[in-house]
Amino acid sequence: MAKTKILVIEDDRSLSEVVCYNLKQAGYEVLAASDGQDGLLQAQLKTPDIVLLDLMLPVIDGLDVCRRLRADAATREMLIVMLTAKAEESDELIGFSLGADDYVTKPFSVKVLLERIKALRRRRSGEGVPDEITKRQGVTVNRRRHQASIDDQPLPLTRSEFRLLDTLIRQPGRVFDRTELIDAALGEDTMVMERTIDVHIRALRRKLGDHADVIETVRGVGYRFRDTDLPAEGAVSDEDA
Fold first, then answer.
1. Which of 99, 172, 225, 230 could form a disulfide linkage to 168, CB 3.0–4.6 angstroms apart?
2. Cα distance between residue 192 and residue 180, in whole Å
3. In terms of pTM, does the model score above 0.70?
4. Running DSSP on this structure, what letter comes out for residue 211?
């Protein structure tokens, strides 16, 4: 079986060497680039399965690299993990909105990074995804095709956003706490802060547009997919959460 190929786009030489060494020790085939232009070229020519992408890169910055990878039919399905020293929520939102599958803030544990990669690979394999379609209030989730749509118009969701929506739409009215949603969308062995789910939810709501209110925030608890048979009390907007 071919090894999973990972491209590390990182301009910090010492960090790149550490990450590449540990990835090779874990059994991955590893490629490396030190600027955005070279990284984009290698992604297009060598088609890695996963891209570890620094945000602050010379020549072409990481956000632009992510945007271009998602815009190209040949590279749009690659898993993208952003590596960055920026920890502001706005940076995470931008990264997720451009299609990043995960976001790791420096400094990070290599062990945690490896676990995040394993979780992404499991989600890519589609383990446990049933062959069925769920449609509620104009929102459709097709698990077999791993696609979501609104009124038959495709939604450009990241894998984490798709899993979040899928988890919520299956049981309308049920309130999921953040820990449950981390397990469902990011993997139960993923070590992240609970606010990471809030970042994903905000990005998902923006993509839902006029249907954003189908995902309700229940103050002090978590989130639920709106059930038309339930009263709206207890649910608050994104801004009030």
1. 225
2. 13
3. no
4. G
